[in-house]
Amino acid sequence: MFVVGLGDDAVTQIATVNLDGTGYRVLTTTKDRKDTPDFSPDGKRVIFAKARRERESGRTRFSDSDIYELDIASKQEARLTEFEFFSANPPAYLPDGRHFIFSAEPLSNFRDYKEKFQDNTIFIMSKTDHALQPAFTRGDHSYGPSVSTDGSKILFNSISNDLDGVKGDYNYDLFLKTPGGIVRLTNLESMITEGNISPDGRRVVFLSDKERNHKKDLMVMNSDGTGLKKIELPVPDRVITVRND
Q1: Contact at 8 Å (CB) between 51 and 68?
Q2: Quick one: DSSP state of residue 32?
Q3: What is the pTM of this model?
Q4: Does domain 1-125 bear CATH number 3.30.70.100?
Q5: What is the tens place of the pLDDT at every residue in 31-79?
Q6: Which residues belong to CATH 2.130.10.150 in the chain?
Q7: Looking at domain 136-234, what is its CATH homologous superfamily?
């Protein structure tokens, strides 16, 4: 499952395709920007983030984001949150199919929230939740949760400067939430992004930009923090250069 643009950058639709490349199908039709879809455990629904406003300036092009749910059979969309976040990151269902987890950046007028919880912005909610409360707290900033299929392990990113007494550029590391608490998995003095845990909860994959030059290394490790390894991607046989003369 993925999102596809159909001629307008401000409009994306959710689509699916079989593993063999057949059966391409577009599931949504509404004229807005959708991102990061995830199937429900029963495969009948899709949860995703939707941005409802295109900004005129700034590095973040789309804003006023909330979490939505699509019923695949009826193609009806339901809005699950009503906070108009500045940005929202990948939502995912928890095993019961009713609760979902996501990270989002509240708007600046969420002062009461920030006074209580700082930038702990990973949330677990359901269709009936109306209060914004963090799923857990870890330092100054937390985002990007990834959940194992059984829900017992939640991988996420967080700034680690406070743990290491480091000033200057922010270092992001991976942390793992389990029933026993939160453990730190990495200590790479790097900018870690795109962390994901395998469905069985045994492996972790992520991108690391240690030199802060946007040349990211693909890394894998065990979810207990052992076996860290860099994946060497193959070099293309040839490079195609496009010229605009």
Answers
A1: no
A2: S
A3: 0.85
A4: no
A5: 888 999 999 999 999 999 998 776 666 556 677 899 999 999 999 999 9
A6: 1-125
A7: TolB, C-terminal domain (2.120.10.30)
